[in-house]
Specification:
heterodimer; A: mainly alpha; B: eight-stranded antiparallel β-sheet; 19 helices; 27 strands
Chain lengths: 183, 653
């Protein structure tokens, strides 16, 4: 999807064309997801930030200055949402003395400074996920997208919990290896 | 820890599942604080998990649907959204389960964290502001009213309160049912019943009714809608477009299940649009839309008609007018004692329990012929066996069978047909291929005459090859399975083609798992091993070619609910209901299953299974129904299931 096309959709929407907004979400959804996923620690958070970004975008389209950088504008909105999110979690973690939450939110905030690098890695990982075998893809989706507990998956795949943990680890290691190679 | 994954990685997996004890969680926090290397590794791994999960999400129609719903009436007001967001973040930061933190927190019940108490005060303040704001709202649009409410909440403009019967439902209202139910009635007679743990947002778009069912169970009875203004129900996985019908929706995290009772419903996911008709069921999930030709509910309603359509005709049962032995060793002992030759009916698959190939049908016609049966009854010991089993069995029966067949000098590979064999083990006549009754009778005459010239009977060694022992295990239960191809039109079910026969065996352990020990009213998933056993070995089209069991990884969907409807000190009754999706690439099937199981004094005395759905293979697609019931005839209890060819049959894969 070319930037010109996205820019035309943004202008049409700014001009009051509601249908253009739908097309704009469909045209930019993947790229925005890749950007947001690079900065989250759960699928739920990704969905929440994506939704909030598009809602904010919908409400503030009048503020967009057409200059051929609509996706960059979207990503700035998403980044602000992520900053809000990680700061709030960091603050609550401090109040509770929760070391796990503190570590995760520190990492979330720090990584926002390396947004470009993480977005590239995320895009590579996105491509790598498409290269998984059907069985590996099914397993990884059930574990990570559907958040199915390891014990349930072990039962479904007729393996012990530990054996399934090994399989999942190997799939993720394959994904990491693939992600670290340039496209 | 085995393999190449260490304990720390398993610890992270368990943390993700909220499976750590308080002690383990405290230890984990301490390590996060004191061990920088571990902390870095933990964070890296957790973040990678999150990145994978986030990238797997849908960035097409599903994302658009959520955004549109957020922008339209289902979006909480600004104040409420802020409060909601804060609450979600707090919940996520406590005993964590990524992807399910909010629910895990709220369901924990009773004990609130200090942070949650702080947020509670903030929320109270926000809600108070919301009430003032709400008073300034313009006149709302009434779209329906509450016909009944029990333990349900109404959320309007950011303020939640108990839902009351007879009050109005306005555009944008969210009805959430915890443990009770709620019924929403529209002026045109349309009614939506919401079950426990459901949440729905009601909107109006011009004249069209719009509902978003985020989770739970909804039963809809929809009056005739104008074509240009259908009722639309959106779920996280699909949309349902309705012009007038009755149907049921169940929304869980993994998908949306639709069952249509009357009329037709359009089931839409992205560009995929399916018409789902009365009696059918469909599911939308991440993989797309799937439809089943009949739902378990429709199967239960039409059970009698389907069972009647499958039932054998008189000529189908003629086969059993004589007493077939099914155990070669027992037959040999009888032959020796009565000084009669054996008539072995061998099939590549048991002759008394298999499909309808041309040769099988021809031999079945011979075996059911009155003249053939009369000749057998007077002068032979008739025995029907699965030649596949005896070709492989390393025991006396296998060796006797193979030697007998070799002595017949037949050239075919499967050694099927009728063989007259003397007690000394030599075949004196045979009849294979697609023979006529007269040819078979001639073989009997020839064989009987030759038998008189043969020597003494061999001794019978009853030791068995355990891998091919085709006897029902002690304490086990045998079911007969009958299958037919059906045509379905309106309420009528019409059978065509021959009947397919097979058997299904449960071990004593299976029977215990089937009955279970849950109290009355309990719904649970049928024991996975028993459910897979039924799916792999009973869900098969035995009306056609010789078939094999389904491979273990063919099971794409196996969802069988078991409901205990009666339990006393001596008697248990349960109902089974569910759907099964099997796919091996070259063949597949989608069926619904219902079952009625009764146990008296710990023994299963009734086990009725009805299975119906479509089967697809290279020959095309067909509708097949299967009826399983406890084998009553002693003969049926002795015929080994076709699935016995799978060495895992009784061990459970």
């Amino acid at each position: 999807m070319g930037d010109d096309h996205v820019e035309r959709l943004a202008l049409a929407w700014q001009g009051g064309d509601r249908a253009a907004f739908r097309d704009l979400v469909l045209a930019t959804g993947r790229e925005l997801r890749i950007y947001v996923a690079a900065h989250c620690d759960s699928g739920e958070l990704v969905e929440e930030v994506l939704q909030e970004t598009y809602v904010a975008c919908f409400e503030r389209i009048a503020q967009y200055k057409p200059q051929g950088a609509f996706i960059a504008w979207l990503k700035r909105i998403a980044r602000n949402r992520l900053v809000d999110h990680w700061r709030e979690r960091r603050r609550l973690a401090s109040l509770d003395g929760d070391e796990i939450e503190t570590a995760l939110s520190d990492s979330g905030l720090t990584d926002l400074d390396d947004a470009d690098e993480r977005a590239v890695a995320s895009a590579r990982l996105h491509r790598c996920l498409d290269r998984l075998s059907p069985r590996a893809r099914t397993l990884i989706e059930r574990r990570h997208l559907q958040s199915q507990p390891l014990a349930d998956l072990a039962q479904q795949f007729k393996q012990s919990v530990n054996a399934l943990g090994v399989v999942l680890h190997r799939i993720r290691r394959t994904l990491r290896d693939c992600m670290e190679k340039p496209a | 820890m085995s393999g190449d994954v260490d304990d720390d990685l398993m610890l992270i997996e368990r943390w993700r599942d909220s499976a750590l004890s308080e002690v383990e969680l405290a230890a984990l926090r301490a390590r996060m604080r004191d061990d920088p290397a571990f902390r870095a590794r933990f964070v890296d791994e957790a973040r990678f998990h999150g990145m994978v999960a986030g990238l797997l999400g849908d960035d097409g129609p599903a994302l658009l649907g959520r955004v549109e719903n957020a922008i339209a009436g289902s979006r909480p007001s600004g104040l409420h959204r802020l409060a909601d967001t804060v609450e979600r973040r707090v919940a996520r930061s406590h005993p964590r389960r990524p992807g399910g933190a909010t629910r895990a927190f709220t369901r924990a019940g009773g004990r609130r964290s200090p942070v949650m108490r702080r947020i509670g005060f903030a929320l109270a303040a926000l809600i108070a502001i919301g009430v003032v704001w709400n008073m300034q709202r313009p006149q709302a649009v009434r779209i329906a009213e509450v016909a009944a409410a029990d333990a349900a909440m109404l959320e309007r403009a950011g303020v939640s309160r108990a839902l009351r019967a007879d009050e109005a439902i306005e555009h944008g209202d969210v009805v959430t049912v915890a443990s009770g139910s709620a019924a929403i009635a529209y002026p045109d007679g349309t009614r939506i019943d919401l079950g426990a743990d459901s949440s729905a947002t009601f909107r109006r778009d011009g004249a069209g009714k719009r509902i978003r069912l985020d989770r739970g169970f909804a039963q809809a009875s929809v009056a005739k809608q104008r074509a240009e203004a259908p009722l639309e129900i959106a779920t996280p996985h699909a949309a349902i477009v309705v012009l007038g019908t009755r149907f049921t929706l169940a929304v869980v995290a993994a998908g949306t299940d639709l069952t249509v009772d009357e009329g037709r419903v359009a089931f839409v996911r992205g560009d995929d649009r399916r018409e789902v008709a009365a009696g059918q069921t469909a599911r939308a999930d991440r993989d797309g839309l799937d439809t089943w030709p009949i739902s378990p509910q429709a199967l239960a309603r039409e059970r009698e008609a389907i069972v009647a359509a499958i039932a054998p005709y008189a000529e189908d049962e003629q086969l059993f007018a004589i007493t077939w032995e099914t155990d070669l060793q027992v037959a040999r002992q009888r032959a020796a004692a009565e000084d009669k030759p054996l008539l072995i009916w061998a099939g590549w698959g048991h002759p008394l329990g298999m499909g309808n190939t041309e040769t099988v049908v021809a031999r079945r016609a011979i075996a059911a012929d009155a003249r053939f049966q009369a000749a057998l009854a007077r002068r032979f010991i008739p025995v029907a066996i699965d030649s596949w089993m005896l070709t492989k069995a390393e025991d006396e029966a296998g060796r006797f069978y193979r030697a007998a067949i070799a002595s017949a000098g037949r050239a075919d590979t499967t050694n099927d047909g009728f063989f007259v064999v003397g007690a000394d083990g030599r075949a004196v006549a045979s009849c294979g291929g697609v023979a006529s009754v007269d040819e078979a009778l001639a073989a009997l005459e020839q064989g009987f005459a030759a038998h008189a010239d043969h020597g003494a009977a061999l001794a019978v060694d009853d030791a068995r090859d355990a891998a091919f022992d085709h006897r029902l295990p002690p304490g086990g239960l045998a079911l007969t399975l009958r299958a037919r191809r059906l045509d379905h039109s309106g309420a009528s079910w019409r059978a065509h083609g021959g009947i397919g026969r097979d058997h299904l065996w449960f071990t004593a352990d299976d029977c215990l798992k089937l009955i279970g020990d849950a109290p009355v009213g309990t719904h649970r998933s049928l024991d996975p091993a028993v459910a897979r056993h039924i799916a792999r070995y009973a869900v098969a089209d035995s009306t056609i070619e010789e078939w094999a069991e389904w491979m273990p990884d063919a099971v794409d969907l196996l969802a069988i609910d078991s409901e205990i409807v009666e339990r006393s000190a001596t008697r248990v009754r349960l109902r089974l209901s569910g759907t099964i999706d099997l796919d091996e690439g070259s063949r597949s099937c989608r069926v619904a299953l219902i079952g009625d199981v009764v146990a008296d004094g710990g023994t299963i005395t009734r086990c009725d299974l009805i299975i119906a759905g479509t089967f697809r293979d290279a020959a095309g697609e067909r509708l097949v129904a299967i009826h399983g019931a406890i084998a009553i005839r002693p003969l049926d209890q002795r015929v080994a299931p076709h699935g016995m060819r799978d060495r895992m049959y009784l061990q459970r894969d």
